[in-house]
Amino acid sequence: MGNYNKQLRTIVIMLGIGALTAILGYILRIYLARTHSVTEYGMVYATLSFFSLISFFMDLGVSQSIVRVIAKYRSKNNLFAIRSAFLSVLFFQLITTLFFSAIFFIFSNSISTLILHNNNILFFRLMLIWFMTMPIYSLYISYSYSYEKPHLWSYAEFLKILLVLLITLSLDYLGIGIISVALGFSIVHILLFTIFYRDISFLFEEKFKIRFKIFFDTLHYGILISIGTLGWVIFSQTDTLIITFFRGLDAAGLYQVAIPIATTLSFFMLPISSTLYSTVSNLWFRSKKKNIDELCSLVFKYLFVLFVPMILIISLFSELIIKLIFGEKYIAASAALSILSWAFGFILLSMLIYNILSAIGQAKIAAKLVIICALLNVVGSGILVNLLGIEGVALSTLISGLSLFILLMHSLKKFIDIEFPITIWLKIFFSSAIFSIIIIILKRVLVMNYILEAAICLCIASIAFITCLYILKVISLNHIMYLKKIL
Fold first, then answer.
1. What is the pTM of this model?
2. Residue ending a domain, choose from 403, 420, 437
């Protein structure tokens, strides 16, 4: 275990910053949900979903593939090739972004009204600036991963949401209204590039010549990754667009209340996933396969201990969580939230396995599986949204996410000698069942303030959960002391 102290410390730092980022993100969402209508709230996140979906075509996977390319040239200490790779990717992304931006600006009225059901054309065009400036932010993120400094990404994400929040609050206070959030997004990438320019200034210190072999190597593997990336974009963004198209912005607003709560786990998974991708890529090029096996086995062994109780808490207290955070008018999203909490648990675990496969050069296999399950989700969502509403879309996401997790686990075992701890996972699920039963019983027995009731339920159930894990030898005092040493 001692060999992985650096990675564990990085993950812990990113978890802390990620938690702060999540809090700021919730503050922004809560502010918008409570000070603006459900329709306006839905408009903000439907527009974000639209541009996030289109950003796939701006990137084509090069932001991820460049990490492997830079790992290769760092091992050879080839600074010229490194600079050429970074700047070639930047220019490629700028060209594609400007191309799409020109089309969206010309047809902004039709796209905004017919697809997004939004008559606020100014809002759409301001968000278009956010889309246009994505490449300069993407450059810094690629740098942080390529140089095994994923914590820099955490700092950047924290500052991004902080700046958007502060700009939104300030301009909304002056009476600008919902346009304030669009203005915040429109300038945030430019501000961040200015703040972090010093870290990447070495890329611009000398004239560079595009080496097409390096660029096309990056693009070739990027396209393979992009097939999988498209799948993740479909998983995360098309649900809202489908709901917007078939059910309108009010339904989209409800769904976008459930989504950020259900994806709370992403703030814990993304640091782990990004650190693993960067580390595994570098270990692979150094032919340290045994280290990869050990590291991956260690992560999967204890990941369920973190995830399962959090999913259960969100699922069992979905109505209370929505009521406390967003208010009574969004409680109709509670059933969808209960389903989505499990759906995104499986999706996030699948993303982890996908990143490992991509890091060892197996992006093509992983991408095929992601695309198949993502398309399954689109078809299922399109059918079930008309039958069951937003709950049907959530159910389709759960079925697709679980299928993808099983398929990717099977694929990973073909390339890495990893032992998925099925026995330990079963013990965790047994302990989780005890956790759930205790909460359900206490919720029926206790009659008091709902916040105090939830606190008592969680306290007693958590003690029982940890005790079960200890008795079943899933955790031990040695594990606790080791984590304390790392922290």
1. 0.65
2. 420
The 10s digit of each residue's pLDDT in 2-21 is 445 556 666 667 777 877 88
Around Cβ 451, how many Cβ atoms within 10 Å?
A: 10
Question: Per residue in 398-452, pLDDT tens?
Answer: 999 899 999 988 888 887 777 777 788 888 888 888 888 888 888 777 766 767 7
What is the count of structural domains for the chain?
A: 2
- Do 396 and 452 lie in one domain? The reply is no
Find the angle CA(34)-CA(15)-CA(169) to the nearest 5 degrees.
25
Q: What is the distance between the alpha carbons of residues 274 and 271, in angstroms, rounded to a whole number?
A: 5
Residues 246 and 235 in one domain: yes
Q: Are residues 441 and 358 located together in one domain of the fold? A: no
- Alpha-carbon distance of 363 to 134, in angstroms, equals 24
Range of the domain at 277: 2-420
Q: Which of 420, 448, 463 lies at the terminal end of a domain, its last residue?
A: 420
User: In the structure, what pLDDT confidence band is assigned to residue 58 with cuts at 50, 70 and 90?
Assistant: confident
